[in-house]
Every structure is written in C-alpha cells, then in structure tokens.
Amino acid sequence: MLIDGERITEVVPEDRVKISAQAQVIDFTQAIVAPGLMRTATCSSPPTPAGETSTLIAVQDMQATLRAGFMAARDMSSHGNG
C-alpha cells in the first residue's frame, strides 16, 4: 500500500510495488490495515439526562468509539435532546 500524505494512492501486490528512495517503509506484515469505519447507529446518551450530564455521557461514548477504531458515528438519540 502506498500512501502520499494522508491519502492511499495505490494498493498492489508486494512484488509490483515501486518504492522511491525517499519513501519511508513501514512493515505491516503482522498487522491488519483497514479503512476508517463508521458506526452507523449509536445512542450515545440516554434521553433523560439534560444539559451538561448528557454532553459528558456523549463525550465518554465517543471516546470509546474512537478507541475501538471507528472514525465517525451517527448518534440516534441526541436529536432534539438539547
């Protein structure tokens, strides 16, 4: 996999990779590389807490979501919840 800046520019079999002399090579043979994942339905805060409490619960839930490898989430419970 070739990356230029923050973008994947090419994914090819190892025997077809052309690497420039200036490239940094990172060995991921013992790892799994996956695209950013989106959690499409989450209820990050219960509907009963209001204001700051609801916000703090949502922040904790989103931090856990990011640590689990997700890059984005759609919160199904916050609409109209203050």
What report would you give on this structure?
The chain has 1 helix and 4 strands. It is α+β, with helices and mostly antiparallel strands. It has one domain. The strands form 2 sheets. It has a two-stranded antiparallel ribbon with strand order 1-2. A two-stranded parallel sheet has the order 3-4. The longest helix is centred in the last third of the chain and has 17 residues, at 51-67.
Sum this structure up briefly.
This protein is of the alpha+beta class.
Write the layout of secondary structure elements.
Elements: E1 2-4, E2 7-10, E3 37-42, H1 51-67, E4 70-75
Parallel strand pairs: 3-4
Antiparallel strand pairs: 1-2
In DSSP terms (H or I, runs of 4 or more residues), the helix count works out at 1
Q: How large is the share of residues in beta strands?
A: 15-25%
What's the main sheet like? 2 strands, antiparallel
Radius of gyration: 19 Å
- Range of helix content: 10-25%
| N-to-C order of helices and strands | EEEHE
The best one-word shape is elongated
Distance between the terminal alpha carbons, to the nearest Å?
A: 44 Å
Task: Give the number of domains.
Answer: 1
Structural class: alpha+beta
Strand count = 4
Low-confidence stretches: none
For the biggest β-sheet, the strand order reads 1-2
Mean pLDDT: 78
Characteristics of this structure?
82 residues, two-stranded antiparallel ribbon, 1 helix
